[in-house]
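Technical note accompanying the year-one report. For the benefit of new consortium partners, we illustrate the data format agreed upon in the data management plan: each record pairs a sequence with a structure-token string. No post-processing was applied to the example shown here.
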Amino acid sequence: MSKKEWFASWFDSPYYHMLYKHRDDNEAQRFLSNLLEKIQLPSKANILDLACGKGRHATSLAQMGYHVMGADLSENSILSAMQSRDAHQLKNLDFLVHDMRNPIKGVNFDAVFNLFTSFGYFQTIEENQRVCQAIHQMLKSKGILVIDFLNAHKVQANLKALEQINSEGLVFNIERWYDSNHFYKKIEVIDSKNIEMSTHIERVQALEFSDFKLLLEPHFKIEATFGSYLMEDFDHQNSDRLIIIAKKTT
């Protein structure tokens, strides 16, 4: 990367982790339990948590007995994941700094999980195709891919333009908008003296189920879709999530 991309700098920022510190580990564990009931992996399956962040899903999977690798582009997130007490005690858990557009060489997985809207960060469809090709290359025959994405239709219909969040003595002024292709979130970080500390912009492609179907169909067959972490049926109008379970076909 000749120029650092928005996600490479924002996800490595300490402000990112302050803003999203409320993410619920218990919710993550419940979701994984519900998910694994649906896909029925072998008891000691090898799983890749792709774009794992600070490793909450990867750690939960390893605690369930799976062999897990967590990979993320953010060096700070991977360092934090490796230093966490729970992860440090698990011999069946590894972490790696890695760009999801490239395959991890020399490894194959029974399943690849891409969770919590960790897709669609790029500018082009071709980069999405690279991600799918890399996943295909890393999966064993008939391996499982799980993508947990936002429901773009509902997000667009309910977009909250302005929001202010207070966290750890800082104020986060958030502005959101949609340009027909991407959802944007501008985050301005202000300290207690009303001094601007940092400004970042998140950008996520507004991918619908039909977009994922086109991306996946060269190498995968979609087995099921769900619309929540309770694994309820996906509803285009009302579901909060778009969770896709696909199987490698070629």
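Partners are asked to follow this layout when depositing records. The radius of gyration is 18 Å.
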